[in-house]
Amino acid sequence: MSSNPPDRFELHAQKMVYGGAALGHHAGRPVLVPYALPGERVQAETARVAKGMVYARLLEVLDPAPERVAAPCAYFGRCGGCHYQHLDAARQLEIKREILRETLRRVGHIEWPGEISTHAADPWGYRNQVRLKIGAAPGGHIGFFAADSHDLVAVDACPISSPRLNAVIQELARADWAAKLGNWSEVEARTDDGDTHVVLTFRGIPDSHERSMEGLAQECLRTLPGVIGVAFDVAPASTIRGPIGARVPRHRTSEIRAFGNVTLGYRVGDFDYRLSPGAFFQASLFLLPDFVSAVASDLPRPAGVAIDLYAGVGLFTLPLSRVFSGVVAVEANDHAAADLAANLRSNRAANARAVHSSAAEFLRRYAQAAPDLVVLDPPRAGAEAETLLRLAAVVPAQIRYVSCHPPTLARDLALLVRHGYGIEQVDLFDLFPQTFHIESVVRLRKAQR
Ligand SMILES: C[S@@+](CC[C@H](N)C(=O)[O-])C[C@H]1O[C@@H](n2cnc3c(N)ncnc32)[C@H](O)[C@@H]1O
After folding, report:
1. What CATH class is the domain 129-266?
2. Total-model pTM
3. Is CATH 2.40.30.100 correct for 8-68?
């Protein structure tokens, strides 16, 4: 059987779009080319075509843009983790701001005329957690998947991860670890706020034997720098389809086998957080105090009741508890909910209450007066339609929507705007430099009738 040769063509890249690629047009069709930059003339070839969109591969940059820089990481372009290393950090930030504004317009039909303030820190060495895939690849056995594939790109360093995590990666990449890591498919390494202690979580084999887990754990504890605890998540990995078809984690009771101390301590501002395997925590070492203050400052006075939906381990709940007379924090994940309750106790936030529930279920039962503030920080899939409708019906005076995914943010904001909320402020936090990911905080207020 013969297949058509790949279609090669020259392209003028016009602008960056959400997802990391540049957009151009060829033969009347829109084309997405990763690693090209706006203004560049490039040689590309068709990788695939779907729904009228050509997904192309960059072959050569014919006229480079002035802001193009040499990517510092040897794996850039093969490893699927980073998208913007070829672009200087200041321009990355401008592009993210443009993309956020355009996504609000295109998806949510929201014209935001105001500023989008950007907040950034050191664009390297910032990640406090890294998920390494384990497998067989040319040159190694740990690394990251190539973009849009399950092909392992072996690495022995990751310059966006913290120095401590890099020390662990370098060690794990040594050839003698290949056999020791067995058939586990993933190891996540997380470090604490001082980048000192590390907890590893292995995933991927539901029926593993206690003895082999213990052997691997002891080896990690004995030989890997900073490792104080090793966890094995032995629950069957499962996902469900969320709104707009995104894959979201099921609120499963994942079963963790722990060796050593698997709880990390994390200080942000005036508060100490406990963080266990399986519980979400923001992945940046640097920007968190600033990020928390965008959510938990300039608050209404007198401050009565606040609700923190999708609360995680209580990153926003604790500072809110210093301002509001009562705070209710709602979290669905078992591990995060347990940490949340423990963090409220250990920080003596007696006026804050942890509720282990989905946001929708909590709002279904909510029968109190309208809260002064609701903070909403859902996963990438955004808030479920039911949650948003019930939230609008509870009529909080103010809402602060924290988002890691502009398209679902725009969709959800459109609904809140239809229910009488006006946007007052938009902040963009560059929690993930070198990648296309955009974290933002949007402040909304209910219009007076
Ligand atoms: C993006 S994280 C934010 C956590 C926290 N606000 C923070 O900044 O650390 C989203 C959190 O929502 C939780 N979650 C996911 N779906 C949920 C749902 N339907 N109801 C409540 N919590 C949910 C996740 O377990 C996760 O802890």
Report:
1. mainly beta
2. 0.94
3. no
